[in-house]
Amino acid sequence: MKFSVQKLSAALVCASLVSAGMFANAAAQELRFSWWGGGERHEAMLKASKLFEAKNPGVKIKAEYSGFQGYQERLSTQIAGRNEPDVMQLNWAWLSAFSKGGDGFYDLRKSAVSMKLTDFTDQDLALTTINGKLNAMPVGFAARIFYWNKSVLAIAGVQPPKNWDELFTAGKAFRAKVGDKGYLLDGNLYDLILLSHAYAYQKHGTPYIDPKTGKIAMSAAALKDWAAFYKRLQDEKIVTPLPYRASLGGVEKPVEQQPDWVNGNWAGVYTWDSTVRLIGSTLPSKGQELDVGDFLTLPGAKNSGMFGRSSLVYAVSKRSKHPELAAKFVNFVLTDPEAVRIIDMSRGTPASLSAFQQLQKEDRLRPIELKAYARISTQQKAGAISLPAAQFEHPRVQKFMREVFEQIGYGKISADEAAKQLSEQGATILQRL
Amino acid sequence: MYENRRIGFMYVLPFVIGVVLFKLFPFVMSFALSFTQYDLIEPPKYIGVENYREMFTTDKLFPKSLSVTLMFVVLTVPLRLAAALMVAQILNFKLRGINFFRSAFYLPSILGGSIAVSILWRFIFSRDGLINQIIVALGGTPILWLADEQYSLWTIVLLNVWQFGSSMVIFLAALQSVPQSLYEAAAMDGAGKGTVFFRITVPLITPVIFFNLVMQTVHAFQEFNGPYMVTEGGPLHSTYLLSLYIYEQSFKLFNLGYGTALSWVLFVLVAALSAIAFYSSKYWVYYAGEKEGK
Q: Residues of A with CB below 8 A from B144's CB?
C-alpha cells in the first residue's frame, strides 16, 4: 500500500510538471522591457505596452523601469549575467561599451520586414549601426543648444548673444546689472565641456576624438584652446563657476531645481534641446518666456561643433527568445500612431518621421520645441553636425574628461597642463578601450 | 544517532548552500577575476598581477581614494563610538518617556542610508542651507561644505556619525549590565562622576567597546551610500572612498577585473587592521572573571 501511494504521488508530480510545461508553452510569450525615466514616461510606456498586448493576444510585456541613477550599472550586471531584458532603452553612449564589434545586440536589420526603417534618416540609423549591424533603433535626435529666458534678459537690458564675443560682453553686462548672484549662462560640468569643445572644434576644424580612427584628433593648440575657453568662461563668471554650482547642492543638480534659475538670477542654459519642458516647468508662469538661442559660431567655421546624437535608443537582446517579436515591439513604440499619441513627448522629439509629423499635426509640439527642432535640422541638413566618435561618450573617457575639466574649474591646473593631460592620458585611455 | 546527524545536516543544508553559493563562490571568483581584464561583456582575459601592479604604480586615483578612506575611518569611528556611548549613558538614566527617546535616537540608523536623507543632507549643507545659516547667525562665515575639498568629507562623516543607533543600543545593554553595587561602593568612597565613568563603567564595558570598534571600523571601510548619494565622490575626489571607486570601476567603467583587485586590497587592509585590533585587545579589554596577567 505504502509503495503504491509513493508511485501514485510520483505519477501525480510528473503529471503536474508535464502539464505545467505544456501550459507554459501555450501561455503568453513574454518580453521583458526596461527603461529609465520620470513619472510621465513611466506612465506612457506602461500604457503603450498594454496597447501592444491588446493588439497582440498571447503577448505579455513585463516592464522593468526605474530612474536614471544606477540604471547602467544594473544593466551591465544583467548583460554580464546573460539575463538582460529582451528590449532595452539605452543611452547611445553605452553602445560602444556594450557592443564593441557590433555583436553585442540583435541585428535589427534581420527583422527589417517588421520594422519601418524608412521612417528614419540614414544619419540616424548610422549612429546606431556598428560594423554594418543595426544594434539599436534611435528614439530621437538631440543636441546641446542655448535656451534663454527672454524676460530676464529684457529686464537686465541684455540681448541674447549671437556670437562668441557677444557671449562674453552680454555675460559681463548681465552680471553688472543683476549683481553677484547673476550669471548669464548655466550648465552642468559636461554641458560646459561640450560648449568649450564646440568653440575649439569650430576654430580648428577637428573634434577631440576622430570618429573614424577612435584616436585623438585635436592638435596641441586646439586642446589648449578647448581648456582655455572653459577656463575663461569660469574666470570671467560668464557661466556659473563649478565650485559655486557644487556649493548649491551638487554639480549635477538640474537647472530647473536651482532657485537662482527660478528667481531669474540666471538668464540661460546650455543643455539638451529635449529638456525644454523640464527647464521651463519651474519658471513662474507669468512674465517668464524661454526662447531658443542662436548657435554661436566663429566666422568661417567649417563645422558648427554642435554636439548632437541619438538621445535614446532601443536595443534588442541577442539572447532574446523572441527577437522578431521584440523588433516588432520596438517598431510599435516608435511608429504606431496610437502608441505615438500615448507616448507623446515623454521621450523628447521623435526621430521617426511619421511620429514627428503626427505630433506636429495633432498640435502636441510646442512652438519652442519646433523652433529648437528646426534649428538643429538646419545644421544637420547643412552637414554642420558631424557624427561624434562613439568613444567620446564611453564611460571611461567621460570620467577622464570630467576630471580634467574639474581641475580647471577649481583652479588646480592651467590650460597648458589640461591640454597635456587631454593629449597624453587621453591617448592611453583610448588605446585601452 | 546517525539518523539525528542526518536530520541535523538537513537543517543546516540551506545555510551551507547559501554560504557556498552566495559567499564562498563569489569570494573565490572575485580573487580569480582580480588577475584578469574583464569588461563584463567579453570573456575575462588573464593578465597576471597587472591590475595590482597598475594600482600600486601608475594609478593616481588609488592612493588618493585610499587616503580619503583612511581619513574617513579615522574621523568616523571614534566620533561615532563617542556619540553612541554618550547618548547610551544619558539614555541609561531612569527618566519618564525614556523608551521614546531610545527609539528616537535609533531612528537615524534606519533612515541614514535613504535617498530622502541624502537630499536633506545636500539641502542643509548647501551654500544657503541650515548649517550655514546657523554659522552666519553666530557671526561666522559660510562654508562651502559641498564644494570645498577641505570640508566636503565632513558632510559624509557627520551623516555616518549621525547613524550611531546600533552601537548605542549595544552600549546601552552593556551599561545596564554593570553591577549597581560597584557604583554604590564608589559613591560611598566619594568618587566623582568622571572617576566613576572612567574607572568603573569604561573598564567594565571594554569587551563591548572592542566589539563596536571592530564592527564600526569594518562598516566604515565599506561605507558607500553617503558619498554615492550626497557628494558623488567629489569635489576633486575628496570624498571618493574606496567602495565608490570599486563600484565605479566594476559596474560603470566596465573594468570588473580591476574593481575586484581593488576590493581584495580593501579586504586585506580591513583584515590586517582587525587582526591588529584583536592583538591589541589583550592589553586593554577586560573580561569578567579574568585574572590579571591571564
A: 243, 246-247
CATH classification of the domain holding A133: 3.40.190.10
B270/chain A closest Cα distance in angstroms: 26
- Chain A, nearest residue to B59 by Cα: A425
Residue A60: give the domain boundaries.
29-140+311-362
Q: How many domains does chain A have?
A: 2
**Would you call A412 helix, strand, or coil by DSSP?**
coil
Cα B88 to Cα A160, A206, B85, B103: the distances in Å are 61, 65, 5, 12
State how far the Cα of A56 lies from the Cα of A324, in Å rounded to an integer. Answer: 13
Distance from CA of B68 to the nearest CA of A (A): 17
In angstroms, the separation between the Cα of residue A353 and the nearest Cα of chain B is 34
Chains A–B, number of C-beta pairs less than 8 Å apart: 78
Minimal Cα–Cα distance from A200 to chain B, Å?
Answer: 25
pLDDT tens, per residue, chain B with 294 residues:
566 788 888 999 999 999 999 999 999 999 999 999 998 888 899 999 999 999 999 999 999 999 999 999 999 999 999 999 999 999 888 888 888 888 888 888 777 667 788 888 888 999 889 999 999 999 999 999 999 999 999 999 999 999 898 899 999 999 999 999 999 999 999 989 899 999 999 999 999 999 999 999 999 999 998 899 899 998 999 999 999 999 999 999 989 999 999 999 999 999 999 999 999 999 999 887 665 544
Q: What is the DSSP string of A108-153?
A: GGGGGGGS-GGGS-HHHHHHTEETTEE-EEE-BEEEEEEEEEHHHH
Distance separating alpha carbons of residues B276 and A232, to the nearest angstrom:
51
How many other CB atoms are found less than 10 A from the CB of residue B60?
10
Residues 217-246 of A with CB under 8 A from B: 242-246
CATH superfamily of B60-284: MetI-like (1.10.3720.10)
Which ipTM value was assigned to this complex?
A: 0.84
Q: Which of B40, B122, B144 sits opposite A243 (nearest CB)?
A: B144
Chain B residues with beta carbon closer than 8 angstroms to that of A73: 247, 251-252
Is residue A247 less than 8 Å (CB to CB) from chain B? yes
Cross-chain residue pair B254–A97, CB shorter than 8 Å = yes
